[in-house]
Design goal:
Layout (H helix, E strand, L loop, with lengths): L1 E2 L4 E6 H5 L5 E5 L4 H10 L4 E5 L2 H10 L4 E4 L15 H6 L1 H4 L3 E5 L3 H10 L5 E4 L4 H7 L5 E6 L9 H14 L6 H9 L2 H8 L7 H5 L8 E7 L2 E7 L5
Parallel strand pairs: 2-8, 3-7, 3-8, 4-6, 5-6
Antiparallel strand pairs: 1-2, 4-10, 7-9, 9-10
């Protein structure tokens, strides 16, 4: 646990760590879930429904008029999904996304957020580098904060999530990092090179995921009628 003076911060990792989160919580997934979510909102999506499994995503989509399904299993877009877990695909398909509800399933990020909410964490914000400063602003008034790095498949270490968590911590303690440098450091990770080489990734995904503070909104997740709904908060902290 760290104490920034204004906010006491506890760091957790993976789905297991998220399942112990209490109080104000930030769940991070840089490559690529909560980068993709941010780009979806920027493209005009009205809300995102988080799913933990493929069958749940397909069911939610059937129950939701005009829904678009995005996500992955082992990085790959499942059958029946409209979009992968990819900011690049979203930018290439903005007309598909605009004005619609997105159903989103990923191996780490969506499952970690659900685990935190199931444990009673509140409020819960989902984050990545592209909304890091806005997320820090949204939780600035919290006395205690849990930051969860979703990690690789929700179990392994993902250095990019820890770097994003470090940046949010510094922002909260009044020692803001150079966010361009933070983005560049993530873009140069071995994980970034692996993603670039993966057959399932859009060629622009790494650049889009590492565009630190590209957007000025935070993304809050909450349970509504047994569904996890994410909405953009355009004036965080107000």
């Amino acid at each position: 646990m760290g104490d920034t003076g204004a906010v006491r911060i506890t760091r957790k990792h993976g789905i297991t760590g998220a399942a112990t989160a209490t109080g104000a919580t930030v769940v991070i997934d840089v490559f690529r879930a909560y980068s993709a979510a941010a780009y979806a909102f920027a493209a005009g999506a009205t809300r995102i429904l988080l799913a933990t499994e493929v069958h749940e995503a397909l069911t939610l989509a059937r129950q939701t008029p005009d829904a678009v399904i995005m996500g992955e299993v082992d990085g790959i877009k499942p059958e029946g999904f409209h979009l992968g877990n990819s900011p690049g695909e979203i930018i290439s398909n903005q007309r598909l996304v605009a004005g619609r509800t997105i159903v989103h399933r990923s191996s780490a990020g969506t499952r970690s957020a659900r685990a935190a909410l199931d444990n009673g964490a509140n409020p819960v914000f989902v984050s990545s580098l592209v909304v890091a400063s806005a997320t820090a602003a949204a939780v600035r008034q919290a006395a205690d904060l849990t930051i969860v790095s979703s990690g690789l498949s929700g179990t392994g270490v993902a250095e990019e999530d820890d770097i994003c968590g470090d940046a949010i911590t510094l922002l909260l303690c009044g020692d803001p990092p150079d966010m361009v440098e933070v983005g560049n450091s993530v873009a140069n990770l071995a994980r970034a090179r692996t993603l670039l080489a993966a057959g399932f990734a859009h060629p622009d995904d790494v650049a889009l995921c590492t565009a630190a503070d590209r957007f000025g909104f935070a993304m809050e997740a909450a349970v509504e009628d047994d569904a996890v709904v994410v909405i953009p908060i355009s004036d965080p902290g107000s």
